[in-house]
Structures
1.
Amino acid sequence: MPGVTYDDAPLLADLMPWSVAPPRLGRTWPAGPDAASLRARWDALLAAGASDREALFEPSRARTLHSAVGQLPGQRAGTERLARASGPCPEPVRALVGPFDEQWLIPDHRLIDAARPELWRVADERQVFVVELPEALLATSCFPLLRAGRVRPLYRRPGGREPNVAPGLPEHLTARLGRPVTAPDVLAWIVAWTLTDVRPGHPVPLTEDTGLWEHGVELGRRALWLMRRDGERPKLPGGRRPYVRAPLPSRPLSLHYDREEEALHLDEGRIAPVPPEAWDCTVDGTRVLEQWFAARIAEGEPGTLEAIRPALWPQAWTSELLELITVLALLAELRPQRAGWELTEPVTAPDLRAAGVLPVPDAARRPASVLDAREEGPEGQLALL
C-alpha cells in the first residue's frame, strides 16, 4: 500500500499491551450451540454413578472429579468437588467458540482446564475482547473461547475502567491530531486497519492525518458494532435481506451454495439472497458459514455427553444463521472503503519512542489488581487474591 512502511509501524502488542493466552476447555462438552443441551449434559453427569460420572466427565491432568478450584469471577457455580456435586446447572453464558460463531458455555471452573480467571474478572457489558489470530483480528462482547490467538481486552478493570492501551498513547495522538482521542477510538482504528491488512506480528500503522483518522475510526466503529452484535440488530436494505425461501428440514445434513442464484441450500431448504461475499468469507483459511453449520450438525460419540444435542434443528439456529449472513455481508461492504486508503503523515514506532509512549512499562503488560468483589475459593472458602 502506498505510503505504508510496516517496519516503522507500532505493533498491536505495544498498542494494547496486556494480553492473555486463549482459554482451554480440555473437553468439548461444556460448550455447544444451544443452552438447553448444556443443561441436559450437566444433569446427565450428575445423575451418573461414580464410575460412569468419571468417564462422562473426561478427566485430564488439569481437571478431574476431585479437583479443588474456586468459582469463576462473576459466576455462581458451586465449588465442591464434582465427585459429590449436586444442584442445577450453572446458567450458560454466551461464548465466541469460532470466528463469528457465538455459542454457549457452562461457566464452571471445575469443567475447564485453563479458564483464565483474569479475563472473567473484567468481562462485563462494557468490555470488548480482541482475539488475535494469525490472519485476522476479531472483536467480541462474548467470552472468547477460540483455541488459538491471544486475547486483548479493551479494559483492564470492570466497568470500562483503565483502558488497555499504551499509557500516554491517547494523549499523544490527541496532540498530534488536534482532536480528542479515546481508547475506543484507538481500538476502532486498529479494527478498521486490519479489515484488509493483517501481517505477521500485527503491525498497525498510525496517522496524524485528521481526515484519514476520523474516517478510519468511523469505519472501525461500524465493524466493531457488526462483530459484537449488541444493541440494535444489523439489517441489510430491503430486497437484499436473506429470508427462508423454502422451509429448512427438521434435521439438515448438508450445506451447498448456489452462486448463480445467490442461495444457500440446507438439504432441500433454501435461504436467499445470500451475497457471494458472505459465502466467501474465510478466517485463517476456513469458510465461516461452513464451520458454523458443521458445529451444529456434528454428532458426538454415542455414550458421551457431547452426544446430547437437539434432535431437531431449533428455530433459533435459523435466526442466528440469517443474522450471521447479514453480518458477513455488511462487513464485506466495509472492506472496499478500507482498501483504498493511502497512509499519510504516519505516526511511527520511533515517534512513539521519542515521545516516551514506547516502550510500555512492564506493569501495563500484566493484569491489573482487581479486588472489587469477593471470590469464592474451593469448598466455599474465601479466595485470597
2.
Amino acid sequence: MREKTYLKWYNKIGYGSGDIAGNVIYALLSAFVMIFLTDTVGMNAGIIGSLIAASKLLDGVSDIFFGVLIDKTSTKMGKARPWMFYGYFGCAICLVAIFCIPANISAFAQYTWFFVAYTVLNAGFYTANNIAYSALTALITKNNQERVEMGSIRFMFAFGTSMLIQTITVSFVAAFGGGAAAWRTVAIIYAVVGLISNTISVMSVRELSPEELAGNEINPVVYDKQIKEGELEQVAEELKGEAQTGEEKYSLGAAFKLLVQNKYYLMIVVSYLLMQIYSATLNMGIYFMSYVLKNANLLGIFSWAINIPMIVGLLMTPMLVQKWGGMFRLNKMGYIIGSLGRILVVVAGYMGSVPLMLASTAIAALGMSPLQGNMNALIATCSEYTYLTTGKRVDGTMYSCTSFGTKVGGGIGTAVAGWLLALSGYVGGTEVQSAACMNMLHILYLWMPMVLTILITLILRGLNVEKAVVEQKEK
C-alpha cells in the first residue's frame, strides 16, 4: 500500500529555503567570528574560546526547554511555525550586535558585550527558530519519503548558503573597506537576507492538525487491553479528543526521561555533537589557509570542494534510501568513505599538495552527505520509536537534539580550537606565526576532523532505528 503524500514540490522547496536563514548566521559566525574578534577587535583567542564554551552550556540547556514549549504550543499557525517566524527577528538583531562591539570601551566590556549578544542569540532566538524549523519535518507530513526529501532539500540550501558565505565574505569585507565597519555592514546585509528567506519558508507550509497527526491510531502502549467489539468507537473518540487538545501531558523532567531511555536518541545526540565539533575544527580553515597555505582566498575553493559534493550527495540521497531499503546501510557506508577521504586529506596536507587535499576533501564530503540529508527523517523515526514504546509524542523535544548537538558540539569545537590556538602562541594580525602555532593548525585542520569522522562511523554501526520501529509495529 502506497503511503499518503502531503506536500507539493513547492512546499518542499519553500521549507528547504529556511536553511538560508539559519546558515547566513551559522556560516558567518562559525567561519569568521573568531578571526574577526582576534584580528580586527584584538581579543584573545583563549578567552573567546572560554566564553563560547560557557555560552554553549547555557545554550544546550535551553534546547530541551524550547522543545517542550513547542510541543505544548497550540495556535492558528500551529506548534512550530510561530516560534520559527518570530524567533528570527531576535536572531537578526543579535547577529548585527556581535559585529558592533565598540572600540572605545574597555577590554572587559568588549568581552561582556560579545558574551551577552552571542548567548542571547544562540541560547534564545536561534534555538527557538532552529528547533521549530527542524520539528516541522514531523509536523507537516507523516510520509517518511517526503521527510527524507525535505531533509535533502534543506541541507542543499544549507550547504549552498554556507559555501557562498565562505566564498564571498573575505572579498565582501574588503570591498567595504575592511575593518570593523565593513564587518558590521556585511552582518546587516546577511541579517536582512535571513529575515526574507525565513519568512518565505514559514509561509510555504502548513502544519497538520493534531487529529491528522494522531490519525486516530490506537497505540497498544496507551490502550494496553483487549478491545472488545463495540468499544472501538469509544476508544477512537477518546483518541480524537486527546488529539484535539494539542497538549502533551508530561513535564520537562518526564520528557528528558523519555529521551534518555531511547538509545537511538542518545546515538543521534552524540553523532550530532561529533559532527559539529568536526565542523568547528574545519572552520579553523581561515587560519590554515592564511598561515599554512599563505592564501586566505583558498577558503572559498575548499568550501566548494566540501559543499558541491555535499549537494550532489543530497540530490542522490532520497533515491539511494529507496534503493538501499532505508537509511542505515547508506549512512554507515557513506561514513566509511568519508573516513577514508579524511585520511587522504591528512596525507595530502603533509605532502603540501593542494589539489590532492581538494580531491580528498570532496570524497569525504560526498560520503558524509547521506547522513546530513536524512538526519531529520532519522530523528522523526526515532521520535516514532519513542511513541510506539511509551505512548508519548515528543516531536519538538526530540528535535531539540538537533539544536543541542549543533550548538554544544560547535561550541566545544570552537572553544577547544581557541584554547589550543592561544596555547600555541598565536598572535592575531601577525604575518608570521611560530612553529608551535603552525603545528597546532595542522592538528586542528587535518588530524582532528579525521579522528572525529572515524568515531561517527563507529556509532553509525548501531544506529538502526528503522529496524527497531518495524519490530515494535509487529509486536
3.
Amino acid sequence: MKDFSNGVSKTSAINNDATKKSAKRIKVMTPKRISVGVTAALAVGGIALATQQAQALSALAIVNGITSNGGIGVSKDILYGEVPDQDLDIYYPKLLTKAMKSQSAIQNNYPMVVFVHGGSWESGSKEEYAFVGRSLAQAGYVTAVINYRKAPAHVYPDYVEDAAQAIAWSYKNAAQFYADPERLAVVGHSAGAFNAVAAIANEDFLKPYGVKPTDIGAVIGIAGPYSYDFRKFSSVTAFAADATPDEVMPDRQIKGAQPPYLLLTAEKDTVVYETNTIKMTQALKAAGVSVETGEISGASHATSIGAMAPPLRWVNDVRAQVVSYLDKTLK
C-alpha cells in the first residue's frame, strides 16, 4: 500500500492492502461465473484454504484461513459488468443460508452492504477480502464483496466507475438475494474507501445506472485517501498523466443530495493520514451532509481492516464501530 500522507512513500505491513426475492431453488454447485437472471450458486462449507496457494500465503490469506464461515453461505463470481474484474461475491447470514438450503419460505428482507477493498488501486481481490464478507454476514447483512479494474492498465475514473456500477447493480438486484435495496450501505477501506466515497459523493457516477446517492442508506469509509496530492507519490500511476487533485479528489467533487457518512481513521496509520478524513468531513459538512467520524484506537492501516475478521476482534474495535453504525442506520 502506498503512502497517501504528506511524507515519504512507505509499504504497509500487509502485502496487498487489507471480498429477487425469489421462490426458485438456489442450487448447490461448483462456483462459477454467473450473471443476473441466472440462479445464484450457493456454496456452503468449510474454510477454503486452497485459496492460499493463489494468494502466495499473504497476510490476508492467513486472516481468511482463520475466519470461520460461521454457517454463512456465499454465491461466487457474479457479474455486475461485462469486462474482466467486474464481478462480485455475495455472502448470506446464517439464518438465511439455512432457509435457502432447506427451501424454507423466506419472508425477511435483510439489510445489505457492498464492500470495496483497498490495494492502492493496483492490487487486492474479492477473494482476499472474503473475511469481510463473512464477518458482515455473521452480523446479519447480505454482503457483496466486489472486484474492480486496476491500475496501471486502468486509471481514474475507471475504478470509481466500476464501484458505482457494482453499487447500482447491487441496489437493483438486492431482492434476488433476499436483501432490501432501501437498506443498503457501502463500505470501503483505503483505496476502496476512495472508490466508495467518490462513486457516491458525485452523483454523476451513479446517474448512468438510474440510481441517486440518496438511494444509498449510508456510506462508511475506513482510512480513505480522500484528499492528497497523488502526483508526489508512487500512486501517481493510478491517475491520468495530466490529472490534478482538484479534478479527482472526492472532497472537491461533491455533487447532489447525499446519504449519511461515517469516516473512520486508524490511530496509528502511517500510510493514510488523518488529514484526508478531516478535509473530507469538512467538505461534506459544507455541502450540508450528515457525517460522523471516529478513530480506531490502536489500529494501523493494515489492522484497520484486518480486525474485521471475527477472530481478530480483540486487536481493535473497527468491526464494532462499523456494525454499530450499520445497525443504527439500516435496521
